Amino acid sequence: MVSLTSYLIVSAALLGIGIYGLSVKRNAIRILFAVEIIVNAANLNFAAFTRYLNPPLVSGQVIVFYSIAAAAMEAAVGLALILIAFRLNSSIDVRKLNKLKG
Amino acid sequence: MQIVIPPDLVFVLLAAVTLIAAVLALQAKELIYGAIALGISFIGIAGFFVFLDAPYLAMLQIAVYVGAVVVLILFTIMLVRREQSDELLDRPEGGQGAVGLWLAGLLAVAIAGVAALAGPNLPAAPPAGNLPVSSLGLVLAAEYPIPLVILALLISAALLGALVLAKVEK
Amino acid sequence: MYMQILQILLVPLVFVFIAYYVGSKWGSKAGYLSFASLAYSTLLTLLLAWQGGGQEFYDWRPIGLFGLNADGLSIPILFTIALLSTLISLYSIPYMTHIIGDQKKQFGLYYALLLLYSVGMMGAVLATNLIEFYLFFELMLIPSYFLIARWGYGDRDRISFMYFMWTHIGALAFLAGILSVGYLSGTFDLVKIVTTMIPPNLRMWITLLMVAGLLVKMAAFGLHIWLPYAHAEAPTPVSALLSPAMIGIGGYAIVRIVMTILPTAFVEISTALAIWAVITMFYGGAMALVQDDVKRLLAYSSISQMGYILLGISSFQVLGVSGSMFQYVSHGLGKGILFMMAGTIIMQAHGLRSIGRMGGLASRMPITTTAAILGVLTIMGIPPTAGFISEFLIFAGSFNQAFALDSMLRISISALAVISTALTAGYSLWAVKRIFFGPLPAELSNVTEAPWTVTGPLLVLGITSLIIGIYPDIVERLLLPAVKLILGA
Amino acid sequence: MTLVTAFLTWYERKIIARIQLRIGPLYAGGPGGILQPIADGVKLIFKEVMIPYKADKPLFLAIPLALVVMAALPFAVIPFGQNWVITNLDVGLVFVFAMISLFPMMILIFAWASNSKYPFLGGLRSLFQQVAYEIPMWISALSIVMLAGSLSLVDIVNAQARIWFIIPAFLSFIVFFISIMAELERLPFDLPTAEPELVAGWFTESSGAIFMLQFLALYMKMYLMSSLVTVLFLGGWWGPAFLPQPVWFMIKTLIVATFIIIPRAVFARIRVDMLIRIGWTRLLIVALANVFLTVLLITSGLTTTLGI
Questions:
Q1: Is C374 on the interface with B (CB under 8 A)?
Q2: What ipTM was predicted for this assembly?
Q3: Does the predicted TM-score (pTM) go above 0.80?
Q4: Which residues pair with C55 in a beta bridge?
Q5: D250 at interface of B, judged by CB pairs closer than 8 A
Q6: Which residues make Cβ contacts (< 8 Å) with residue C203, sequence separation at least 6?
Q7: Element holding A28 (H helix, E strand)
Q8: Are residues D159 and D72 part of one domain?
Q9: Domain span at D10
Q10: Between chain A and chain D, are at least 3 CB pairs below 8 A?
Q11: Is the Cβ pair B19, A37 closer than 8 Å?
Q12: Neighbouring subunits of A (3+ Cβ pairs under 8 A)
């Protein structure tokens, strides 16, 4: 059978990919991608732990449920922000979003 | 003749698809392809959820992440598509690429290392028995009703916020 | 293993002489010897941690027993010091070459002093006897004085003298406390001293003497004057030992000695200490925010971090105290990285220390940048680094105690302390941004990445911080029982 | 499945021809025009596939296939009879909805990939419409889930052994039906493919086999929706025993399909703003009200007397 460790390793790799994207990318939409990947890595961990360590209880799944719901909102608000930033700045390069700088 | 697929193989394939798609999502030249790869990666995660006896989460993952989040992302990409310098935009500045790579690598190695270290203490196989779908609903309603309400309020707030933000001033 | 704990101290001590001789002959090669001996100590410490600790006692006739106590409280501290000094002896090879040049003779002296310094710190952590502790305490002061006076920057004679005087006066106050305890109770062995042996009317005075002496070492606000100078002007490898390893020993000694033998008196002054801690945190953070010299910034940051440790100790509660000791570990790792990072920049950019003239270095030194980001995350207490766990424990302990005492003052102190973390985040993130990102100044365009003897130690520290942050149980498992024992909880 | 689709296209032609008294479709091809779909298929397969200039080739070719797969997958959980189901998934209903929710994404990508103005506008409209109507659809199905106490389609049908859910949840049925009309982009909701405005909407640029695949997927989706209505509201396979269960299921599905088809011949197309407003302000509210109604129904004990 697949061990819990392998799930954790997959999740760690996803997290690494996400962190990489978060620290390197300049396109706001890509940054959103990276955030979603990180959230997914966390979700995977919750689901795996709840399955392996605490079978009758599904609290981990509940947290994933909340997390998915929150991710949808986050995407909606984030994209609305990106849209408005694009409208104001005609760019979604996070480096160029510095109009607030005095 | 029945072909028995070993679960390990499925797991490895799923992991490969998920991870490669995640990398592609960030590295694909065309943003649209990135979004599609992101969708594939999400579907891979949904596959893991099925493996983990959480079919409801898997379906939710597909419906919400792929069906809503990726659609929203695609939509936004198409709205801001005037910016054609995608590749230029995503070329990391200075040594950022290397730093990001090192940071991500170290983090992943550390977590995977701890997971492997703790490996002997962790169960190698899940306990027997299934998690019925209805248990999720029961736990949700019996133990976490207040977070559920807060979540609903949060969603409404986020919806209104997004509407206000994206509204075109006339 | 035969005399396992003693070997931790004895092997580097023997190598003091070997390193001196080898260094005088072959110059910087002595660094590898020093590295090897300290690495041996580090491995022994890890082995001890694996075994769950141990004690050794040797006859020391007129004074009592010469004991070495490696329990759950001292092992994490010991490990931090051992790891840092191991890595720093490797790091010193290129760095001291940069300072000393090719005067081979000096390398021997440098490594001999460095080893002696490490032995002093490790011995102080392991001591079971008050006199023994004091001796090791002095043993770590004197080599560091010579290290600063000989190879420091700037006005090094004056600064090293100031450092010596301040800490020595602190040590004397502490000595006065020790001697009175010894006189009143008739023994210097920590385990044999019981509070009741000391007359109640003297308890408070002795506690005040000891705590004041240790607070000088910890550079609490008002007693901190020496620290920014000493840390900023010491040669960077020495700063990287001074700041993360040495000053925290003050906090360790408060837990190990004062809280063990005089718990009641300590509780009485704990609220004052908590207020003092918060003032220190704010002062250090605010001063760090306005510094332009990268090493002075880190020095003030250390002051602020000592405030965290003091706050945790003053909560007088299992979570808070173990959080403080955890903070020693994570601060050691994080600040070690950051001082070594500063040294790397000084070395690679030929003495450049002003943050205002740096920028864009990420493109030239990616590994250093990565390590520095990890260090900054550790200092700020961001998961998944070790700093998160320790700060969380400190604040949890502080709030728990505040609610248990139902004291509005304490609650507001804890809340203020949490707010002060914003200062930490402010100065550290801002510094990273100014140093590593943004446009690269023209005069830095030919800076290159440091050799592996520099980047290797940086990465080792970063990974250790990550591992402890992800799996804090390896430290907490040792700390909790020991702290519970001391607090009698 | 392909046969069913072919049959459906024929069926649609016939009905519309009857209603609108068109001469051609009524008499063309074979006995009753039954060969017409086959002729269509052969023609479309042999036609050249035109790929527009600067179109995104891999996506342009892959999406139609994916559409067919997406439309075919949910049939795995639709129960045609007591034991006539490929897999009885615990979360069958959510699975169907999840697959349906993938359609707008596919269509949008395809529209973008064809690199042309009209398909893109059509794709955006399709996205708006399907996302807007997905929500009332989910919420109206919620009351069914509450009544049946399960997400498995087999359990839902079993719960209707004595009374069809269309009776206790009639409001829900109406909302659901309107929503699937919009989801299927049938008239009067066929804005994404409105001929006078957008040539042929999001499949303007498709031709030959590509067009055939899309067409196939759309009609399969229609059949899927009809069977979903049957499962959720019309008691699935239940019926008098003189016919086998799958036959009952087919008959009911066909009736639903008929009702989906008829409006095409009867109604005019509505405006975009009306469409969105109906979806978000009317249907959503009715669907939510319906949920409360169902809660009342269950708590009042009426459902137990009805024997659900």
A1: yes
A2: 0.77
A3: no
A4: C69
A5: no
A6: C195, C262, C264, C265
A7: helix A28-53
A8: yes
A9: 1-46
A10: no
A11: no
A12: B
